[in-house]
Structures are given as C-alpha cells and as structure tokens.
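A reminder before we start the practical. When you read a complex entry, don't treat the lines as separate problems. The point of joint prediction is that each chain is placed relative to the others, so the output describes one connected object in space. Small molecules and nucleic acid strands, if listed, are placed in the same frame. In the example below there are two entries. Take a minute to note the order of the lines before looking further.
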Amino acid sequence: MNRAVVLVIACVAGSACAQERGIATAELRSGIGFAGAAVQAMQADDAANPGMLWVERGEKLWRAPAGADDRSCASCHGSAAASMRGVAARYPVPDAVSGAMLDVEGRIVDCRVRRQRAPPLAREGEDLLALAAHVAYQSRGMLVAVSIAGPARAAFERGRAYYDERRGQMNLACAHCHDRNWGRRLLAETISQGHGNGYPAYRLEWQTLGSLDRRLRACLYGIRAEAPAPGAPELVDLALFLAWRAEGLKIEAPGVRR
Amino acid sequence: MAYARVQVPPEVRRGEAFEVRISIRHPMETGYRVDDVGTPIARNVIREFVCRYNNVVVLQARLNSGIAANPYLRFFVTAVDSGELAFDWVDDAGERGDARAAVRVVA
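Here is the predicted structure of the whole assembly.
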C-alpha cells in the first residue's frame, strides 16, 4: 500500500515519468543510428538525399493556387519557412473543430478541402507527399514535442494501447520488437526503436518517399496483421504515441531509411 | 512528373574541373515486375541523358534497368566560359524532362 502511494507520487512529481516510457530518454536513438554508413551519408547530404526532390516540389505546390477561390497555401500562410517552422514537431494534434486527431498529411487535406475548397489529395500521392515533406522539412533539427494533455489524451491512450496490443498471425505487439529487442538482429536488419522522427522519409525499399502512416502499415504487414486503411484514425493515434515516445529526438525529415 | 535537382558550385575558376550533381524524379521501372494481379509492368527507364555546356555535349549517358529509381548522377566538367549547363533526358515512354543551371566562371 505504502509503496504504491510512493510510486504514484514519484510519477506525478516527475512530469516525464521514467517508468511510463519503454525506452529511457538517455537511450533514445533515431532510426538513422541503426542504418549503415552509406545510408547515413545519403541522409546527411541534401544534394544526395532523394527526399529533397519532394521537398522542393512541395515548395512549388505550396505557392500553386487551387480550389474554388484560387488560393494557395501561401495565400494564407505566407512562406512555409516561417509559418511552418516547428509544426511537424508538435503533430499529430486534435482538430479544434471536429476534435479528430490530424497528422501533418491529415491537416493538409483538411485545409485543402475546408479552406481552399479544393478536392482532397490522395494519401501517399505525389502531391500530398511533396507538401507534407515541405512542411516537415521546416522543422528539421527541432526536438519532437507533442501535447498529450486535454483533448489529445484519449488519442494518446488509444495509441499506447495499440502499441502494446498483440496482433496479426505473428501475435506480436510493437513493443515486443521496438521496446524490448531494439538493437538486436532480425534476419538482415537491426531492429530500430521505432521512432517516426525521420518521416516523411525516402525508403530505399520503396524507391520513393513515404509517410509514417505507410511505414506503420508496412510494419503491420510484416507481422502479418491486418493493416488499417491509409490515414486511419488508429494509425494517427499510434503516431501521437510514437511522437511522445520519441521526445528528445530531432526531426530529420526528409530522412533516408532502408 | 519529370523534375530534378541540380547542384553546381556558385562560382568556378576557369580551367578547373567542377562537380555537377543532378537527381531526377523518375520511377525507373525495370520491366521485370508485375502488379498485384500479375500483369507485367512495362519497362520505363530514362533511356538517354545528355548534359550540354554552352551547347557542347559534355556528358551523354544511356541509363538502364539496373539503375535505381530517382537516379543521382555526379560528374565533373571543366570550366571554360560562363554560361549554362543544360540537362535533357527522355524515358522509354517518350516523356522528356529537362533542367538548367547557370555556370559562373571567374578569373
């Protein structure tokens, strides 16, 4: 009884309760830390990083008018370099109107439909990836810092439950690999800690840029679980939990991953 | 879909070799893959790539299916006069792409 009370007090006292996190802050390692030297060099050099193709294209799309009022992203937000700085580092966030959790891609689509009155962009389509990469790029080097208070709390708890729940034919939870066995080998790969700070990232396996959403679905495929549809709420909830778990790491978008 | 990023130094010295880097957004479809229902996906790679420096061909390359998507080419060109590097390419589907970069030669 006494011990339980002490534990509770300890957890309340420290805002970041160590027991809550699967990986201690001091041990956090970005996915690029598990990659080989060639992949690391590719990410570090903007001229060689293929993800920059999408970032640059996104800059053009940012200024391209669309929709009923012929307005571009820049019409309201100005230069992304100023207005979007730090945005990707604090997403996903709950939408003020609907209360639904939105990741960066979700926010772009929402803005496009509601403000620009334009048709939505398809998930994993070239245009949405380019815009998302351009927005995420503005937060490069900034620490991941999401809010899990207030309206985001429920989503965070759902995301955590999803992370800890066994699923698929392999009967594995995310935590089995990425909390308990990171750094060990899984066939030819080193298991990473499962952080999303490099996304949208250019994945050599995909030969293209992809969102965190796609990466999560690929992981679910890997454990032979049924993957939700692109942009499904449970994946955004999971992305929020992952972002919280990655607090202490910096945004690397556009990352390069195997 | 055809777009590219080019990097050349802001200034180059006459007679010296400078590095040119270009990456091109292209799927470089090998022709060996099939889609989800087994239909072969037609080969579509950048067939020919040409770089001209003030209208003189300095690099001509025939790319093939062994080259990954979004090809990244890096080569050296000797600086002669200020002007333009022009990159042009065509893929198996007949789609053309191009990019330009200014060269500024000092001394």
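Discuss with your neighbour: The longest helix of chain A spans residues 152-164. What might explain this?
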